[in-house]
């Protein structure tokens, strides 16, 4: 029965809510798109945004699992093949460090939106795909997220040697 | 009518006199304060680097001497919870524990998540035991001997400060909680990071090199800590006894500084950013690469 390989997608909105993104991933057309690309499971961390219980038992063949918060998303992130995340720097870094394909969705309703700057800058460097809730379908269809660059591992020595140079001359 | 006018005239003359006296008294004070502030702020502070270099040239054997205790930097780290804590601990994780000790972590009163992360990092990277954690019940004076013991054993300590504002707290009561928070945080940072150098110790650092550092990366509340140090310099605490102030802007800030960054930019000795574009707008900012 389960001979076909599992392909999973994680959607995460972070520590608050992101209604536009959650509403997008609730749509049947979104589920159909994921199925057409061979994905079998959808995991949604929806925060304070409403996620109706009936959406879990939707009509499509996509297996959906949803929760509001978890102390750590590390296990979920490790288990999936694609991460669709809000543009918070913490989530972005965590996903990039795991070297997972990452699509970042900018919340345009946030005031003085520096998240967009980070998403755009990292997209420019080829580490992720940046989009908005309305362009998420295109971002998934474009397949660009399959050919992203590897994000460099954190190097704590850079800051350490800088501090040494300032304090231990 | 005329009596009333005369009274008012007399009263206003009295007021005028008082104001003029106050201005005459306050002017030199303000001038002195301004001069002090000028020398306490980064561009006009005496250059430590050149003096430190001179010291090294004068006495090259000191550091290599086997009996010599290596110089250490008292390292105070402000953890602003959430993403701030995560980035800061990433930075601290690379530091050499033989140089940067003792390490004092300042966290929010109820920020248990940051405390857990500090313990995890210290035990993983530094294999040290926490010598002292100021719990919500204990008083700081009771634990002071423990801190002293900690200094000798190169460990780390954790200190909690009250929140300056709770989520959803009324703006009417905010000034009071803010004042309370400052009344705890300011003496704490002075006590932890402004240390008189040991008298007559052969191993003490040169009189012009810093003996401590304060690392900050936001949020805006760390302004209080930076101001406390600058005030200490203004009232005459010698330069080498106050910590060198470092601010490290978040990885999330690409083209604009955070509020904390904007506030601390003119105050700190060293200002790091993680995206090169920011150095064009802020010439004092340094870019040395992505740090997290």
Automatic annotation (TrEMBL), chain A:
Heterodimer with ALG14 to form a functional enzyme. Keywords: Endoplasmic reticulum, Glycosyltransferase, Transferase. PANTHER family: GLYCOSYL TRANSFERASE-RELATED, N-ACETYLGLUCOSAMINYLDIPHOSPHODOLICHOL N-ACETYLGLUCOSAMINYLTRANSFERASE. Gene3D superfamilies: Glycogen Phosphorylase B. GO terms for biological process: dolichol-linked oligosaccharide biosynthetic process. The keyword Oxidoreductase does not apply. InterPro entries: Alg13-like (IPR039042), Glyco_trans_28_C (IPR007235). Belongs to the glycosyltransferase 28 family. It catalyses: an N-acetyl-alpha-D-glucosaminyl-diphospho-di-trans,poly-cis-dolichol + UDP-N-acetyl-alpha-D-glucosamine = an N,N'-diacetylchitobiosyl-diphospho-di-trans,poly-cis-dolichol + UDP + H(+). One of its GO terms (cellular component) is endoplasmic reticulum. This is UDP-N-acetylglucosamine transferase subunit ALG13. Residues 9-144 form the Glycosyl transferase family 28 C-terminal domain. Involved in protein N-glycosylation. Essential for the second step of the dolichol-linked oligosaccharide pathway. Its EC number is 2.4.1.141. Pfam families: Glyco_tran_28_C (PF04101). GO terms for molecular function: N-acetylglucosaminyldiphosphodolichol N-acetylglucosaminyltransferase activity. Coiled coil: none annotated. It is found in: Endoplasmic reticulum. The gene is ALG13.
Automatic annotation (TrEMBL), chain B:
Residues 50-65 have a biased composition (Basic and acidic residues). It is a single-pass membrane protein. GO terms for biological process: dolichol-linked oligosaccharide biosynthetic process. It is found in: Endoplasmic reticulum membrane; Nucleus membrane. The keyword Endoplasmic reticulum applies. GO terms for cellular component: nuclear membrane; UDP-N-acetylglucosamine transferase complex. Gene3D superfamilies: Glycogen Phosphorylase B (3.40.50.2000). Keywords: Endoplasmic reticulum, Membrane, Transferase, Transmembrane, Transmembrane helix. InterPro entries: Oligosacch_biosynth_Alg14. The chain crosses the membrane at residues 15-35. GO terms for molecular function: N-acetylglucosaminyldiphosphodolichol N-acetylglucosaminyltransferase activity. PANTHER family: GLYCOSYL TRANSFERASE-RELATED, UDP-N-ACETYLGLUCOSAMINE TRANSFERASE SUBUNIT ALG14 HOMOLOG. Involved in protein N-glycosylation. Essential for the second step of the dolichol-linked oligosaccharide pathway. Anchors the catalytic subunit ALG13 to the ER. Heterodimer with ALG13 to form a functional enzyme. Belongs to the ALG14 family. This is UDP-N-acetylglucosamine transferase subunit ALG14. It comes from Actinomortierella ambigua. The gene is ALG14.
């Amino acid at each position: 029965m389960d001979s076909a390989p599992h392909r999973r997608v994680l959607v995460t909105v972070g520590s608050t809510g992101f209604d536009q993104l959650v509403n997008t991933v609730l749509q049947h057309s979104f589920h159909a798109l994921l199925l057409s690309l061979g994905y079998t499971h959808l995991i949604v961390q929806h925060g304070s945004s409403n996620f109706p219980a009936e959406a879990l038992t939707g009509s499509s063949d996509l297996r959906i699992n949803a929760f509001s918060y978890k102390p750590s998303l590390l296990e979920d992130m490790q288990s999936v093949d694609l991460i669709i995340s809000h543009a918070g720097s913490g989530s972005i870094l965590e996903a990039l460090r795991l070297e997972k394909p990452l699509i970042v969705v900018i919340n345009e309703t946030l005031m003085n939106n520096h998240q967009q700057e980070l998403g755009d800058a990292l997209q420019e460097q080829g580490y992720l795909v940046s989009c908005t809730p309305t362009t998420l379908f295109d971002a998934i269809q474009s397949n660009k997220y399959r050919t992203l660059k590897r994000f460099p591992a954190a190097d704590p020595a850079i800051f350490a040697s800088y501090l040494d140079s300032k304090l231990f001359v | 009518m005329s009596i009333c006018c005369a009274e008012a005239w007399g009263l206003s003359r009295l007021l005028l006199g008082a104001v003029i006296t106050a201005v005459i008294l306050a002017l030199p004070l303000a001038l002195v304060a301004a001069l002090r502030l000028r020398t306490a702020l980064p561009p006009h502070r005496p250059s430590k680097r050149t003096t430190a270099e001179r010291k090294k040239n004068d006495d090259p054997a000191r550091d290599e001497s086997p009996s010599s205790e290596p110089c250490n930097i008292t390292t105070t780290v402000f953890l602003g919870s959430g993403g701030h804590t995560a980035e800061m601990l990433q930075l601290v994780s690379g530091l050499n524990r033989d140089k940067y000790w003792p390490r004092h972590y300042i966290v929010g009163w109820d920020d248990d998540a940051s405390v857990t992360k500090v313990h995890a990092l210290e035990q993983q990277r530094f294999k040290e035991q926490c010598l002292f954690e100021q719990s919500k019940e204990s008083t700081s004076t009771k634990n002071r001997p423990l801190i002293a013991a900690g200094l000798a054993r190169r460990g780390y300590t954790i200190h909690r400060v009250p929140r300056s504002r709770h989520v959803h707290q009324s703006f009417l009561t905010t000034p009071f909680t803010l004042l309370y928070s400052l009344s705890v945080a300011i003496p704490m940072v002075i006590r932890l990071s402004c240390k008189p150098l040991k008298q007559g110790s052969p191993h003490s650092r040169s009189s012009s090199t810093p003996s401590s550092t304060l690392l900050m990366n936001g949020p805006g509340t760390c302004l209080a800590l930076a101001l406390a140090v600058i005030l200490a310099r203004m009232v005459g605490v010698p330069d080498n006894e106050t910590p060198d102030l470092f601010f490290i802007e978040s990885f999330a800030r690409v083209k604009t500084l955070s509020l904390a960054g904007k506030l601390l930019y003119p105050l700190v000795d060293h200002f790091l950013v993680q995206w090169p574009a920011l150095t064009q707008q802020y010439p004092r900012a340094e870019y040395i690469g992505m740090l997290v």
